[in-house]
Amino acid sequence: MNEITVVDANLIFSILISDSEKIWRGFARKDITFVTPNFVIVELFQHFDRIKKASHLPEEKMFSIMSRIVARLQFYGEVMISTGSLVEAYRLCREVDPKDTPYVALALELDAKFWTNDQTLKIGLVKKGL
């Protein structure tokens, strides 16, 4: 069975903006199932203009990369996450960024790894014992 890893919008932003080979190699691994809550779509649309500007990519190329990213993801509706996981995730995220709650909750729910490039979130979660 494949390892399950939850990815957040920050990681997807990093892929689009930095074109990092290290991130792409990790994201291309077939032995990992990458999952994310549907909320990631909202965040991508909210920050689309900023991502486009920072990526310096033509819109068509950016959509092509986004398509490759989306093809590697399994999406989960937030209704599939238990109240217990949501409450615990909020407790872990509230002092850093409560908007990251759905990602952390999904990782808790699936007993999965969590991959983000948000250093502040990483540090905050480690301090809370995750």
Key descriptive features of the protein:
130 residues, alpha/beta, Rossmann fold, 4-stranded parallel beta sheet, 8 helices
Describe this entry's structure for a reader.
The protein has a single domain, classed as 5'-nuclease (Rossmann fold, 3-Layer(aba) Sandwich), CATH 3.40.50.1010. The two termini are 23 Å apart. A 4-stranded parallel beta sheet has the order 3-2-1-4, with helices on both faces. The protein has helices at 9-18, 21-28, 39-46, 48-55, 59-71, 83-93, 101-110, 119-127; strands at 3-7, 32-37, 73-76, 113-115. The chain is 59% helix and 14% strand. It is α/β, with parallel strands linked by helices. The mean pLDDT is 89.
Topology overview:
Elements: E1 3-7, H1 9-18, H2 21-28, E2 32-37, H3 39-46, H4 48-55, H5 59-71, E3 73-76, H6 83-93, H7 101-110, E4 113-115, H8 119-127
Parallel strand pairs: 1-2, 1-4, 2-3
Helix pairs in contact: 1-4, 6-7
CATH superfamily: 5'-nuclease
> What's the domain count?
1
Please mark out the parts with pLDDT under 50 across 5 or more consecutive residues, or reply none.
none
The helix/strand order is: EHHEHHHEHHEH
Oligomer: single chain
Instruction: State the separation between the terminal residues, measured CA to CA.
Output: 23 Å
